[in-house]
Amino acid sequence: MTDLSTYREELRAWLRAHAPAPGPATDVAAAKAFQAALFDAGYAGITWPTDVGGQGLGPEYQQVFSDESSEYELPTGVFTIGQGMCGPTVNDLGTTEQRTRYLPPLLRGEEIWCQLFSEPGAGSDVASLQTRAVPADDGWVVDGQKVWTTGAQWSDYGALLARTDPDRPKHSGLTMFIIDMHAPGVTVRPLKDMSGRSPFNEITFDSVHLPADSVIGEVNAGWHAAVTMLGHERVTIGSRRTAKTNPLDFAAVRALARDLGVDADPAVRDRLAELYTRERVLELFNARVRQETAAGNAPGARGSVGKLAGALLSRLAVEVVGEIAGPAAAGWEADDERGAGLALGITSSPAAGIAGGTNEIQRGIIGERILGLPKEPSVDRGVPFRELRVGTQR
Question: How many domains, in total, are found in the chain?
Fold first, then answer.
């Protein structure tokens, strides 16, 4: 095994030679080509098991990669959900055949995945979802709708949570499936947000056939699979290392204050110090979570701490930028790349407090599962789902 210092130097040299210049965020072909190069060089799936194409290395090697790659804007965002959420769940709960079939091409960048949980009537209360999967002679037939699905427009597969037994209470009648996003009956419609981009999608399923071996885990044990995936999701979102090209990180905001000539203002310096402190504390917390996760010690509810802290940090950065720029934050010249980047960061930041579970949901998890506070009252836990008036079910 290569020692850490040598590993760092080799990785640093490889990134200098192969990291592409920033390009369109949705250039899927370029993303797949770069991911394949990462895989061939041995820098994909660093802590993943070797039997599914991973490197089988320790968390310290992943930490080195996170540190060094943060100097670049790598085109790997389209793989975040698959490699950070869906893949780890398949690795935890999937069959040997599923792990062998789906995980290697996911690491190589040949296939992209999305997560199919939220519905028009089931957002924070995911367990009230109504997309249904009905047994068929040779598998299942799915009908329903999902919404706010990130990256579905370029995904090949998805992890779908559907209701398989409406006579059970809402949490115990769910099943997770692998679904082919190109299958007949799957329709994807991108949704444009206020940033002008379309990161989210609405998906409808019209009598979509799923084979019997598409179940992840066990039938009617989908809530366990969902909790497993949400745990991976919150660790992935919360521990994601911010690239140094991010217009809302401390270095960029400090440079903005300097260029506007307000960096000596005591009030501005106080806010910059707060931003730096919060950013650094979150980096250290996330480094520990990544190391513990790679070592086999799942962080559990502590993943919500990093997720919540990241959303609040994003909000703080937007506030500080607004205070520094003042009225100048209302517009920018067409050729002002920094202005455009700041605008994108400002309009995108509210999503950080919603995607992957709202800030309120995270606070509830932290209060109940970490601080031991009393659980919120729930009167529907033992009631069959078909008897509930939830979501759009009336």
Answer: 3
- % residues pLDDT > 90 (the chain): 61
Residue 66 phi/psi, 5° resolution? -60, -40
Residues 302 and 204 in one domain: no
Contact in structure between 200 and 148 (CB atoms under 8 Å): yes
Predicted TM-score (pTM) of this structure: 0.85
- Please compute Rg for the chain using Cα positions: 22
pLDDT in tens, 244-263: 567 888 999 999 999 999 99
Give the structural domain span for 24.
Answer: 4-111
pLDDT digits (tens, 9 = 90+) for 136-159: 989 999 999 999 999 999 999 999
Domain CATH number, residue 280: 1.20.140
Residue 159 CA to residue 81 CA, distance in Å, equals 10
pLDDT at 247 (0 to 100): 81
